[in-house]
Write a structure and sequence with these properties.
By secondary structure, the protein is an alpha/beta fold. It has 2 domains: 236 residues, Aspartate Aminotransferase, domain 2, CATH 3.40.640.10; 124 residues, Alpha-Beta Complex (Aspartate Aminotransferase, domain 1). The chain is built from 13 helices and 13 strands. The strands form 4 sheets. It has a 7-stranded mixed β-sheet, sandwiched between helices. A two-stranded antiparallel sheet has the order 6-7. It is globular, with a radius of gyration of 21 Å. Bound molecules: pyridoxal-5'-phosphate. Pyridoxal-5'-phosphate (PLP) binds next to α4 and α5.
């Protein structure tokens, strides 16, 4: 059995005709930028996310960057971000010249620890960017309450958690502005780069619309220094074809994860995902943790099972952020996660037999070295 870390077959093969028809529709429309397809997808995604506004942009990183610009966050301002996120969250803060203030995650959920927020807030703090990492919703009640008390903006990074909920409310609908990504491998993915900002604030939504299109709301009139970061008509059409299937794909990810959790229970030395009360998990990735991470990954590779590490180097230890002077030991929880995390395959279409095989191999690995931990 050869099981890749990610395969699109389960998602894309059954809807090939629908997606190709959507692409042909764009081809024949002879309108390729900011037309009906983008408008229709924005309306459909806003409805899916239960928000008033969705603005399609070029990618998830731009969605974060434009959100910070729309809130006029810049040099001298501080923005709280998780210490263990994908680097895009940090880069967006760097783009606007604001100061990155990392806060450590909880070691059990891997999401921002709301109890550590107060200590990170200063008079210069302007915003918090909670990241619903791996697909699990952050503890939004606590985060929103701290933000409210200190008059801070919240920008959710919802790139990994389309359809997740906190106490029944969808992620991407809590913050003032919320960024998401439709990078192909995300739970809802385009056939290239794509992203969106979601919001319930009409004024801020309007600003994002201007920022994505050269700072213009009226053709050839530019009120602010904007960008070219528009969602393509072609990608919007593909996303509209895929969106109706997202809930079924999410259910499959959750089923696969439930199988893993059942089959991998009670292995000493192996930590399985923990979901906090009220937080739902859409399993963008299924992350296990072990001190034997590299050896386990190697063992699974020899069994033709693909795995990945999300993420091997935390942002503060990347060369790109060397100038901030945060070396080894500065954010120990993020470093511990980088050392011990391993993501198992969890794509829609993965069968019960395949999951059983992966679980069997994982168990075999630990049984072969009973005294290593
Ligand atoms: C993928 C991702 C992004 C960036 O999205 P792109 O579309 O690749 O720019 C941002 N934040 C998180 C947490 C992500 O996983």
């Amino acid at each position: 059995m050869n099981i890749p870390f990610l395969s699109f077959s389960g998602q894309h093969d059954p809807i090939r005709a629908e997606v190709l028809a959507a692409m042909a529709r764009v081809y024949d429309s002879k309108w390729y930028v900011l037309g009906q397809e983008v408008e229709q997808f924005e309306a459909a995604y806003a409805a899916f996310n239960e928000v008033g506004h969705c603005i399609g942009v070029g990618n998830g990183l731009d969605a974060l960057h434009l959100s910070l610009r729309a809130l006029e966050i810049g040099p001298g301002d501080e923005v709280i971000v998780p210490s263990n996120t994908y680097i895009a969250t940090w880069l967006a803060v760097s783009y606007v010249g604001a100061t990155i203030v990392p806060v450590e995650p909880r070691l059990d959920t891997y999401n921002l620890d709301p109890q550590l927020l107060e200590a990170a807030i200063t008079p210069r703090t302007r915003a918090i960017i909670p990241v619903h990492l791996y697909g699990q919703a952050c503890e939004m009640k606590a985060i929103m309450s701290v933000a409210h008390q200190h008059n801070l903006y919240v920008i959710e990074d919802n790139a990994q958690a389309h359809g997740a909920t906190y106490n029944g409310q969808l992620t991407g609908s809590f913050g003032h502005l919320n960024a998401t990504s439709f990078y192909p491998g995300k739970n809802l993915g385009a056939l290239g780069d794509a992203g969106a900002v979601t919001s319930n604030n009409p004024g801020l939504a309007q600003r994002i619309k201007a920022l994505r299109n050269y700072g213009s709301t009226e053709k050839y009139l530019n009120n602010i220094i904007g960008y070219n970061s528009r969602l393509d008509e072609l990608q919007a059409a593909v996303l509209s074809a895929k969106l109706p299937h997202l809930s079924a794909w999410t259910a499959q990810r959750q089923q696969i994860s439930a199988w893993y959790t059942e089959m991998l229970a009670d292995i000493p030395g192996l930590t399985l995902p923990h979901t906090a009360p009220g937080c739902s998990h859409v399993f963008h990735v299924y992350v296990v943790r072990t001190m034997q991470r590299d050896a386990l990954q190697q063992f699974l590779a020899t069994s033709d099972i693909g795995t990945l590490v999300h993420y091997p180097v935390p942002p503060h230890q990347q060369l790109a952020y060397e100038h901030l002077g945060w070396g080894q030991g500065r954010f120990p929880v993020a470093e511990e996660l980088a050392r011990t995390s391993l993501s198992l395959p969890v794509w829609p279409g993965l069968t019960a037999d395949q999951v059983a095989f992966i679980a069997k191999q994982v168990r075999l690995f630990f049984e072969a070295q009973p005294n290593k931990y």
